[in-house]
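Record filed below.
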Amino acid sequence: MSSQPSFSDEKDIKQPPPYSDAELGTRVDIHDAEEVFGATENGPDYRAVGWMQAAVLLLKSQIGLGVLSLPSALQTLGAVPGVIIIVFLGIVTTYGDYVLGQFRVKHRQVHSVADVGEILWGRPGREILGVMYWLFQTFIAGSGMLATSIAFNTVSEHGTCTVGFVGVAAIIVGICASARTFKQISFLGWIGLASILPAVLIVTIAVGISDRPPEAPEGPFDKDLHAFGSPTFAEAFLAIVNILFAYAGTPSFFSIISEMKKPEDYNKSMFLMQGFSMAFYSVIAIVVWYYCGQYVASPALGSAGPLLKKVAYGIALPGLLVGAILYSHLAAKYIFVRALRGTRHLQEPTAVHWVSWLGIVLGCIIFSFIIAEVIPFFDSLLGLIGALFGSVFCVGLLGAMWLFDNSHKLRQGATTLSYKVLYVVNCLMILLGALLLVAGTYASVVSIDSQFKKGEVGSPFSCADNS
């Protein structure tokens, strides 16, 4: 087959692409004909992820860098609005993730949000959302490399040039991300969770049992705790999109579903992941904020004092790397599937298969390395990612997906109360996504500009200590 399957018309949406045995190997289940990866005798088994492995991959896609900015978000917004927003965005994204699963059931050919874009808006939608999706994944991988360099600097007391530390992170990430299937790297999800969760808990316990914040000055101090903060417009929305970033695993879920043994088990994995995430985020944010107040660091691992800061970052180091590995793999897999979909080279270990895959991984790693060096500050980078991409992929797009699959019921005269409520809810999702996109991007740009003017961050590709 020489051309890629298209999903832009009704015929293509409802009927599977005519793959042949010569192209994809022998299929064992005709029901899988619409799926991106089929059963094959000639290549890796892409459809090998169980529901628990999927839950771990979803968790590691979700829990990582985002949790490290939550305590400082509470300090900016105040405890009451901060916790309300953490819970509210958790509920919004849980509903959105459920809509994603329902959409995937009806459109089993979807591998990424780019495919969603073509179903909703044709080729322009595919190209625009495809570029955004790839940038989203590579930006997060870049932020993971940046956080890893902070960890290296902390543990080694700035043992070498920061660019070198980012380079070391990029090499490790590139080697591990070059594994071809999620099954092959699913164990890293366990390692990542077993690393980042204890590190965050160490900081939480340490600040809880300390009689004063480690970063507080000698003598009397004021943690400046407030139920309601008084941030500027830009400060408030930067904090909000930082919270949104903590729930920004959503765009990666399509790719994980595509490699599940039973995609219908996605909801089980997703609800487990979201329930844990919301509880974990709320507890960590409240405890660290309460005991540190205005002396909270971002990333939060720096809030436990010099010694425990080194311990926490040392334990968290594998988790920071795993996050960058997963998102680099996702970015590369998107381009790989886009380039080879519908050909035998997608799954069979041909020369084209290997050269394409390794070359794409290398390109993604280089781009993420550049991002880590060009935007060398943590909060503003997370805020920019949350505003530009999280607002679309985790909120607005989900509302549009529900309307695409269900708005015809309104034209057919559906009048039930539940339908009307869901219709309004999904319209509001689109509006909320637009608000977060515009206001959050403005806030992030203002913050980045302010930090450069104040000299609070080093220049791009600087060797300076960023810990």
User: Anything to note?
Assistant: Residues 1-31 have pLDDT under 50 and may be disordered. The two ends are 52 Å apart (CA to CA).
